[in-house]
Design a protein that fits this description.
This protein is of the alpha+beta class. It is built from nine helices and seven strands, in the order E-H-E-H-E-E-H-H-H-H-H-H-H-E-E-E. Helix 1 crosses helix 6. It is globular.
Length: 257
């Protein structure tokens, strides 16, 4: 029997499901999650997925895969897809640009020699990507607050998820792009987003299946990076060690769709 709440099926990490969670948190929509916490769980579920990948989204009689389709469905049905066709096109352009940036980041970490390539990546491809994104972000205003128009769209959530990873892994690169840096800080300070971050759910540390809308809180925390030998700043002001700087979004099982 289909549940009354939307349900997100994904690994017990942030990853591609994070913009979905962020959208529901900002909208105050209660939702369920099924988080896979072991390889055995994924092995059992994989044959039930249409493309051998997660996330899977369930809502009423709907059950479907493919990350971008899920984002756009939520955007269309919750007023996060622009106000006219021009803005909807801009939403898709922005989301695809950020998605390419995410893929490039993850592709680096799938290489066996990624540790030796981090500094070159930061100075070259990453710097170019952030510059391109910032130029597009500021295409209509020298001090934009949103990625499309003057209201929230799903692109804001997708962009925040990417920039939050960059802030954890390459903080100097994000700081070098002031408009992107300001957007990242402003977005995470939104009351419901701040409450979600402070709740601990961002860490995957709270096992109950049902997630109700957050209540605004004052504190902001951040999941720390893996324990390595080099330090990077965390949102709380402490420093998490990481010479490998492995993305917190990386899937423990396989690259998802």
């Amino acid at each position: 029997m289909p549940g009354s709440k939307p349900c997100v099926i994904y690994f017990d990490i942030r990853g591609r499901a994070e913009p979905i969670r962020l959208m529901f948190e900002e909208l105050g929509v209660a939702y369920d999650e099924q988080r896979l916490r072991s390889s055995a769980q994924w092995k059992a579920m994989k044959p039930q997925t249409p493309f051998g990948a997660l996330p899977i989204y369930e809502e009423g009689e709907l059950r479907f895969a493919q990350t971008q389709a899920i984002y756009r469905h939520i955007a269309r049905t919750h007023g996060l897809y622009g106000r006219d066709e021009r803005e909807r096109i801009e939403c898709d352009v922005g989301a695809e640009a950020v998605n390419e940036a995410i893929e490039n980041l993850w592709r680096l970490y799938w290489e066996t020699d990624y540790k030796e390539r981090l500094e070159t990546f930061e100075r070259g491809p990453l710097a170019e990507t952030l510059l391109d994104l910032e130029r597009w972000f500021a295409r209509a205003s020298p001090s934009p607050a949103y990625w499309v128009g003057d209201v929230l769209t799903y692109v804001d959530f997708v962009a925040y998820r990417y920039l939050d990873e960059i802030d954890a892994l390459f903080p100097a690169a994000l700081a070098a792009r002031p408009l992107l840096f300001a957007f990242h800080r402003a977005f995470q300070a939104r009351p419901r987003i701040a409450a979600y971050i402070a709740s601990g759910w961002i860490r995957g540390s709270r096992p109950p299946r049902t997630r109700e809308a957050s209540v605004p809180r004052d504190a902001l925390t951040r999941a720390s990076a893996p324990d390595r030998s080099r330090t990077v700043p965390t949102r709380s002001g402490r420093r998490a060690t990481s010479d490998a700087r492995v993305p917190r979004c990386a899937s423990p099982c396989r690259r998802d769709a």
